[in-house]
């Protein structure tokens, strides 16, 4: 089974990247492909979950071991497949997802793509005692970042997407700027992962 791939970014789409490893292009589905944007000249390491089913062999890739480990924990939960687990990680970074499970924060979990109340409860029941070493120190009850409160009323997915982008290293100033272009591209019911991917695309474009 493939555990990681090291190569150069050959292509990037909204759901996956193509990683060139010694002349072979691997399509790798990622929570947020744009975290690899701008690295086409570098050799990058992508941590892999190699998923085999009857009709397909799929590669899911992550920028960190923590994401990879959390993904594997998530797909062990009944009702959560690889696509839903990928959506969870695109809607929240590992620290916030783990914190939500530890704090039994069903409100936060049900805002993640593909997660209803019963699945959120199952996540808490199955994973609360199995996430040691996967972070979760972040508080989900911190004040909303400056500039975000007014946006929450218009597009509920933006504050959560914003938190995920801040965890990737983007500043509040950069996120305030990207919102000016993003707000006309998203709907009021748009999922968090979709909002985040659109924001990353704008951030990459500069």
From TrEMBL:
GO terms for biological process: DNA recombination; DNA repair. SMART domains: HhH1 (SM00278). It is found in: Cytoplasm. It holds the Pfam family HHH_5. Coiled coil: none annotated. GO terms for cellular component: cytoplasm; Holliday junction helicase complex; Holliday junction resolvase complex. Residues 72-91, 107-126 form the Helix-hairpin-helix DNA-binding motif class domain. InterPro entries: DNA_helicase_Holl-junc_RuvA_I, Hlx-hairpin-Hlx_DNA-bd_motif, NA-bd_OB-fold, RuvA, RuvA_2-like, RuvA_C, RuvA_C_sf. Has three domains with a flexible linker between the domains II and III and assumes an 'L' shape. Domain III is highly mobile and contacts RuvB. Belongs to the RuvA family. This is Holliday junction branch migration complex subunit RuvA. It comes from Paenibacillus apis.
